[in-house]
Amino acid sequence: MQFHSDPAPQPKGDDSTVPAAAHQSIIRAVAFVVRCSSAATCAYVADIKIGLPHAVWAAISALIVSQERLDDTTTSLAGRIAGTVIGAFIAVAVSLAGARLTTSVALQIAVAVAVCATIARERPPLRVCMWTAPIVLLTTQSGVPIPISAAYRASEVILGAVIGGGFHWSTEVLVRRLSRL
Q1: Which of 33, 60, 111, 139 is paired with 5 by a 20 to 30 Å CA distance?
Q2: What's phi and psi for 56, nearest 5 deg?
Q3: 3-state SS string over 37-102?
Q4: Does the pLDDT value for residue 13 go beyond 80?
C-alpha cells in the first residue's frame, strides 16, 4: 500500500477555523520531527538490544532513508538496502584479495570505491555502495573476519533503513487520519 503526500482537500465555507492547508502543514511538520527523532532513537535502541557493535549506523540510516514523500522514502529504502549489500560484498572481495596480495587498506579503499562508483554511475540509487565499502574496510576490528564485519555493518544499516521506512509509513497513515479531522 502506498500513500502519496498530496495535500488534503480544503473544506469549503468554514472561515472560522484554520484553513485545511495550514492545518495539514502543521500536522506534517510535527509528524516529520517526531518521525525522524523516533526512527533514529528506535533504530539505535534496536541495534543495542540485538547486540550489533556500531549502533551509530542504524541511527544514521534511519534518518538518511527518510525523504519528504513516502514514495521517495520507499525508493530510497530499496536503493539503500541493495547498495549496502553490494558495497559490503565488494568490500569483502577486495579485502580478501588484498590480504592475499598484501595491499594496504588505502589501496583496498581505492579499488572498492572504484568498483562501486562504476556501479553507482550506471545506477544512481545504489550510490550508497560507494561509502558502504570503505565503512566496512575501516570499521573491521582486529580479529574479526571481514565477512563478519561486513555482515554487522550491513545489518546495522538495513535495520535502521527498515525502521526509518516503517516510521515514515506509520506517520503517513496517522497524518492522513488527522488531516480528515
Answers
A1: 60
A2: -55, -35
A3: HHHHHHHHHHHHHHCCCCHHHHHHHHHHHCCCCHHHHHHHHHHHHHHHHHHHHHHHHHHHHHHHHC
A4: no
